[in-house]
Amino acid sequence: MDIYTKMAYLKGMLDGMDFEDKKEKKLFAAMLDILEELVEAVDDLDEEMDEMQEYVESLDSDLEDAEELLDIIDEDLSLVEEIIGIEDEDFGCTCGTDCDECDCEDDCDECECDCEFEFDEDYDEDDIIEVECPECGESVCFFDTMLDEDEEAEVVEILCPKCDAVVYTFERDLIIDEEEDDEE
Description:
Largest sheet: 2 strands, antiparallel
Helix content: 40-55%
Strand order of the largest sheet: 1-2
Order of helices and strands: HHEEEEH
């Protein structure tokens, strides 16, 4: 017997009983009404829980499919790397060195190692400009020759590689004006 049948049975019993006091019958009728509302609320919760369970199972199935697809992609990528002859060691550290001596896993922003960039013989350390990004605080280094690469540009902006904020602005007009003043 389900709960709705039991509620109907209780209501039938209440109707069949002969109460001497009408107030008692009203009290029991009100209690049965409240019980009926609670039964309906519990039934609604059961339906919603069943729908939620179906949705969670659907998400779980989709997640399993996505994981299988990622495994296939990873296997295919490994096969392509093997065919081409690329190894993980071919992708050096983000700071430009191998970082074999530290545990930064090729992400020098996350470590405190002494990863030093090795310069070409054409450059020395005086040719490097180092500024701190005003947005994220990242230390940004660049060669001063980068400012002369695009001679037609009036303004050269150097961006932070981490957050793309402008960390250095070079205006060519000011340099040309200063050179003309020096000649006079």
